[in-house]
Amino acid sequence: AGAPRLLAKLGALLLPVVAFVVFVVLNGSIVVGDKEHHQAVLHWAQLAYLSAAVFAMFGAWGDDGVLSPRYLRAALSLALKPTSMLGCAAAVACTAGVLHKYSLAHPFLLADNRHFTFYVWGRFLGRIPWLKEALAPVYCYCSWFTWRRLGEAQSQLWVLIWLVAATLTLVPAHLIEPRYLTTAVVVAHAHAPERTWTATAVTAAGCILVNAATVALFLYKPFTGVEGGQERWMW
Q1: pLDDT averaged over the chain?
Q2: What's the burial of 105, exposed, middle or buried (CB within 10 Å: 0-12/13-18/19+)?
Q3: Digit-coded pLDDT (tens) for 87-109
Q4: In whole angstroms, what is the distance from residue 62 CA to residue 55 CA?
Q5: Residue 228: pLDDT above 80?
Q6: Closest Cα to residue 192, out of 125, 126, 147?
Q7: pLDDT tens across 136-149, in order?
Q8: pLDDT tens readout for residues 150-183
Q9: Torsion sign across C-alpha atoms 32, 36, 42, 48
Q10: Contact 59, 194 (CB under 8 A)
Q11: Which residue has the higher pLDDT, 20 or 46?
């Protein structure tokens, strides 16, 4: 009796899943549009980028901030505790290995100099030897902090479902596009909001400044592209 009741209450949530399966069968892939240049891949580094994006959107202000002494002490204690030290080292090593093997650069990323990611990859991640791997401890802290903050606001099952959904969305994507992270980031923060108005204001101010700078670059700092036409900066 429990299963039919649960299906009656939550069955509507299965409709998008069924519709997606039907779409993939009829379309032949998950790609909409240019299938040749948007093949599904295993881009596991996307999860590292997601952890950094979610982490960055949590406020730095107050006891719940990303750099608050409370969380830094907890992370340091976990890393130095004899019972968990080996696990932390293994997590960092595995993350470095994943970043080394699965940090992919789509041809569009390497060719389109209008996007900020072109310069992040071309001048840093894709150019400086071992930089990607050296960031593994940072990504691990971002992941741990995100998991902890989400876990304090939601059940572990909710966090796991969020992670699985984000993985299915991001990992097949070859391109590095900040907009791909938007849904996962917004859902995470909507379900684990800042706990003080001060932290919320600081986070909002940071987002406004970044967006204002981006719009200003787009409007007032056009540049001449490779083919001689006028180009504009964008994410």
Answers
A1: 89
A2: middle
A3: 999 999 999 999 999 999 999 88
A4: 15
A5: no
A6: 147
A7: 999 999 999 999 99
A8: 999 999 999 999 999 999 999 999 999 999 999 9
A9: negative
A10: yes
A11: 46
**Which residue matches tokens 């071309």?**
122
SS (H, E, C) the chain: CHHHHHHHHHHHHHHHHHHHHHHHHHHCCCCCCCCCCCCCCCCCHHHHHHHHHHHHHCCCCCCCCCCCHHHHHHHHHHHHCHHHHHHHHHHHHHHHHHHHHHCCCCHHHHHCCCEHHHHHHHHHHCCCCCHHHHCHHHHHHHHHHHHHHHHHHCCHHHHHHHHHHHHHHHCCCCCCCHHHHHHHHHHHHHHCCCCCHHHHHHHHHHHHHHHHHHHHHHHHCCEECCCCCEECCEC
User: In the beta sheet, which residues pair with residue 115?
Assistant: 234
- The pair of structure tokens assigned to 156 is 């572990």
Tokens of 152: 């304090």
